[in-house]
Amino acid sequence: MEYILLLVGFILLIKGADFFVEGSSSLAGIATKKGDSGLALGNAIGSNLFNILFILGMSAVISPLHVLGESVIDTVLLLGSAILFFVFARTGRRMTRSEGAACVLLYVAYTAYLFIR
């Protein structure tokens, strides 16, 4: 009987987490379709800040993190992309389709770099 309750608990936990992830990831899409790009942008930036600062911070509190040389390269690329995004956002206070395409191409190039190294 205990195993059945444990299994039901795990299933409910997985379904609840799936519902939460689906709801939060669809927020940016819905906001963009309604023309509220500020909400979509805030969702993306807030999510990344939380993952970088809180998750890494809590991980380091629990157990010190060792920084590898490859991580430094990734951090420099992340900082460069953030600066590039800032420049794109400041020119005309909007991001054009060509600037968006440039961001997507940079992402594809970075993903290819990760597979190659």
TrEMBL record:
<feature type="transmembrane region" description="Helical">
    <location>
        <begin position="72"/>
        <end position="92"/>
    </location>
</feature>
<feature type="domain" description="Sodium/calcium exchanger membrane region">
    <location>
        <begin position="29"/>
        <end position="115"/>
    </location>
</feature>
<keyword id="KW-0472">Membrane</keyword>
<feature type="transmembrane region" description="Helical">
    <location>
        <begin position="40"/>
        <end position="65"/>
    </location>
</feature>
<dbReference type="InterPro" id="IPR044880">
    <property type="entry name" value="NCX_ion-bd_dom_sf"/>
</dbReference>
<keyword id="KW-1133">Transmembrane helix</keyword>
<dbReference type="Pfam" id="PF01699">
    <property type="entry name" value="Na_Ca_ex"/>
</dbReference>
<dbReference type="GO" id="GO:0055085">
    <property type="term" value="P:transmembrane transport"/>
</dbReference>
<keyword id="KW-0812">Transmembrane</keyword>
<dbReference type="GO" id="GO:0016020">
    <property type="term" value="C:membrane"/>
</dbReference>
<protein>
    <recommendedName>
        <fullName>Sodium/calcium exchanger membrane region domain-containing protein</fullName>
    </recommendedName>
</protein>
<dbReference type="InterPro" id="IPR004837">
    <property type="entry name" value="NaCa_Exmemb"/>
</dbReference>
